[in-house]
Specification:
Strand content: under 5%
Order of helices and strands: HHHH
Number of strands: 0
Number of helices: 4
Distance between the termini: 72 Å
Number of domains: 2
Structural class: mainly alpha
Radius of gyration: 25 Å
Helix content: over 70%
């Protein structure tokens, strides 16, 4: 039990400076890119470091990035794809043909002009 708590403390002590370093670097990257590109392209004002860091936090809150594990929000995609593949594999030929026809009826004209009747 004592060893587990030590490992948690050790991880936290390691994680804290690493997180601060990553935040500092990301803040400078955002500031550099903003000040390099947007004043000329969009006639936006220049940012200081704290504004860039605030913008980074705001984007995190609005768009929900920086997920654990780096999945980028696609962590459920593989499970859904496996489920769809299993469902497809369990269909017989008649069910597959029926599914294909229904798919074509619903989605076959996507991107093309369809006559609505």
């Amino acid at each position: 039990m004592m060893n587990r708590n030590f490992n948690r403390r050790k991880k936290f002590i390691f994680f804290l400076p690493v997180a601060v370093l990553i935040a500092a670097v990301l803040g400078y990257v955002v500031m550099f890119l903003w000040n390099w590109i947007l004043p000329e392209v969009a006639h936006a004002g220049k940012l200081n470091y704290w504004q860039a860091l605030g913008l980074l936090v705001l984007c995190r809150l609005l768009f929900g990035n920086f997920n654990k594990g780096g999945h980028g929000g696609h962590n459920g995609f593989r499970e859904r794809a496996r489920g769809m593949r299993a469902k497809w594999d369990s269909m017989n030929e008649e069910e597959r043909a029926k599914f294909k026809e229904e798919y074509k009826r619903r989605c076959g004209g996507w991107g093309h002009h369809r006559n609505k009747e």
